[in-house]
Amino acid sequence: MPNTAPDTAAVPDLAALRAALDDIDNTIHDLLIRRARIVEQVALSGKPAAFRPGREADIVRRLVTRHTGALPAQTLFRMWRELLAGTTGMQSRVIVAVCDAGPGAIITQLAREHFGTLTPLRTHASPAQALNDVTSGTATVAILPLPNEADAARDAWWATLANRTPRLHVIARLPFWAPRTEGAPMAQALVIATTPPDASADDRSLLVVELDSDVSRDRLAHSLTAAGLAPNQIVLRRDPDAPAAIALVETNGHIQDNDPRLTTLVGAVRRAVVLGGYAEPMQGERA
Question: Which long-range contacts (CB under 8 A, 24 or more apart) does 229-236 make?
Fold first, then answer.
């Protein structure tokens, strides 16, 4: 007669598995407590700002790259974004001003996903209101929709950003995790702060370029390329009543005010100012 008794060795011991998970949870918690204590020491080190968007980007890239197993990499990403937001909040109070006049509160959702569920948000209908919060110190950062050539004049906030006092900088682009999707592109936004961005391993910079009103996009691109600042994208605005046009240019690398390439822009370009930059967002299921 065949042996029909269950193979007890093949049946998982549920109580033992749960106990193992509890041990792992305790270990993770102990490490989080240890990490928080080190963050407290970092806060006392005299560093100029709690925000290090470039370093945060490199941390997340490193963890996603080394990740293995069945846990979705995007889950890992969400966990670390919440952790980074929480530890930044340990070092200084963070308030986010969001310009979100569109339906669905998409920009607000991007802000919440990046800066954590506990970070206070202030929502405004115009970019100027959000930027004024940062200038006045009411908010730590502003989150504004990505510039578009079809934007109304009042929404072209980038055109005057470099002239504000105190000076404001683009420091990040949202979402940092950008899954590949079919159909309409997902909403994107830029993060603005009084502190300049820090470099990561893969960056993009934004320049505001003032040029003669009759200069074509191709001529501008040629001038930029000749100076070693080949553009990835150009947003060009012309005012029929103004003597000059203005362009927002995205180019590769982490560019600072003293970059010598800025002084080699001649001819059609009247003035070029670094607006800031951001770590290149990750894409795909595992990036």
Answer: 229/255, 229/261, 229/262, 229/265, 232/204, 235/147, 235/148, 235/149, 235/158, 236/149
Q: Report residue 213 as tokens.
A: 């009103």
Q: Which residue has the tokens 């012309």?
A: 238
Domain spans, the chain:
27-89, 90-283
Check whether the bond before 175 is cis (ω within 30° of 0): yes
Note the pTM of the prediction, 2 decimals.
0.90
- Burial (CB count within 10 angstroms: exposed 0-12, middle 13-18, buried 19+), residue 251: buried
Quote the CA–CA distance of 49 and 94 in Å, as a whole number. 11
Q: Which residues pair with 124 in a beta bridge?
A: 99
pLDDT tens, position by position, 164-188: 888 999 999 999 987 666 554 578 9
Per-residue tokens: 237: 């605005």
Question: Which residue in 199, 222, 200 sits closest to 269, CA to CA?
Answer: 222
User: Looking at the domain 90-283, which fold is it?
Assistant: D-Maltodextrin-Binding Protein; domain 2 (3.40.190)
